[in-house]
């Protein structure tokens, strides 16, 4: 069955575990200090500011599920892998986009389909609508969802922030991910591209463990790459951004089911 962002499983304990742990530690420290002083223990509750909470959620791989309003959002389970993706992804301390496409990368090995990673695509539908204007108003949602011109317009628009998040279903040598992406990027950038060489260097000596994430965000002509909680770097190259996201939004997507569900979500916004 095709993955759909309409069907989600919420991890209701996603935020509470961390917050309760921090609260417990600080409360114990305060209690011991006050007992030594002969004072009554103080009681207090942590209330992180929304921006800090969003940034921490992203850094923790979305496990805390903090949204643009500072409140907890649902984590979405990719049904074929059981891996979780945040229902919203925020960058730059405040720009957030909902999960609009989801699927799983399956690699054929000796005739057997092996699940490599769950894939989430994040695009703000309102930004997509602004990029395409009214060209699709009144048209069939079903037809527009399959129109490659829609994906090309979204990918080409530098002011439409796009994120793809991969959560690995097995341990994977990063060289395999690097080589697969480089094969897609090289025709557009050229083998001697400084941006391509810098991008490839991010993956040196890295192994992705099951459950770890790899995230790419195209924002204002810059490609931001993160390995789990650590940002690997930013490369200011619009062609690199377009070429990388073409691997997921182009005519031959790496994860067809993620592109398909993204198309359905965006079509519902640009046709009305």
Any overview of this molecule?
With 272 residues, the protein is an alpha+beta fold. It is built from 9 helices and 11 strands. Helix 3 packs across helix 9, helix 5 packs antiparallel against helix 8 and helix 6 packs across helix 8 (238-249). The chain is globular. The two termini are 27 Å apart.
In short:
By secondary structure, the protein is of the alpha+beta class. The protein is built from nine helices and eleven strands. It is 38% helix and 25% strand.
Helix-strand layout with pairing:
Layout: H1 16-37, H2 50-59, E1 75-77, E2 84-86, E3 88-91, E4 95-109, E5 112-123, H3 125-132, H4 141-144, H5 148-156, E6 162-168, E7 172-173, H6 174-189, H7 194-201, E8 207-208, E9 213-219, E10 222-227, E11 230-236, H8 238-249, H9 256-270
Helix pairs in contact: 3-9, 5-8, 6-8
- Compute the average pLDDT: 81
Strand order of the largest sheet: 3-4-5-6-9-10-11
Q: What's the N-to-C terminus distance?
A: 27 Å
Number of helices: 9
Question: How many DSSP-defined strands?
Answer: 11
Largest sheet: 7 strands, antiparallel
Low-confidence stretches: 1-19, 39-66
Instruction: Kindly state the percentage of residues in helix.
Output: 25-40%
- Estimated share of beta-strand residues: 25-35%
């Amino acid at each position: 069955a095709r993955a759909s962002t309409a069907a989600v499983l919420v991890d209701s304990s996603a935020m509470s575990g961390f917050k309760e742990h921090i609260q417990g530690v600080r409360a114990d420290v305060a209690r011991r200090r006050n007992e030594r002083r002969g004072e009554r223990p103080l009681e207090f509750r942590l209330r992180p500011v929304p921006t800090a909470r969003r940034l921490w959620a992203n850094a923790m791989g979305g496990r805390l599920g903090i949204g643009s309003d500072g409140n907890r959002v649902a984590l979405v389970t990719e049904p074929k892998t059981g891996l979780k993706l945040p229902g919203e992804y925020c960058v730059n301390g405040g720009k957030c986009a909902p999960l609009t496409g989801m699927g799983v990368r399956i690699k054929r090995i000796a005739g057997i389909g092996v699940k490599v990673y769950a894939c989430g695509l994040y695009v703000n539908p309102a930004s997509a609508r602004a990029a395409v204007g009214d060209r699709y108003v009144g048209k069939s949602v079903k037809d527009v969802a399959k129109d490659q011109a829609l994906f090309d317009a979204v990918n080409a628009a530098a002011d439409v922030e796009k994120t793809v998040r991969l959560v690995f279903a097995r341990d994977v040598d990063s060289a395999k991910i690097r080589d697969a992406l480089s094969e897609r990027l090289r025709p557009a950038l050229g083998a001697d591209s400084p941006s391509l060489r810098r991008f490839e260097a991010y993956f040196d000596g890295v192994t992705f463990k099951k459950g770890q994430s790899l995230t790419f965000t195209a924002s204002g002509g810059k490609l931001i790459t993160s390995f789990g909680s650590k940002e690997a770097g930013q490369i200011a190259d619009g062609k690199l951004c377009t070429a990388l996201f073409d691997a997921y939004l182009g005519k031959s997507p790496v994860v067809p089911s993620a592109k398909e569900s993204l198309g359905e979500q965006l079509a519902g916004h640009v046709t009305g």
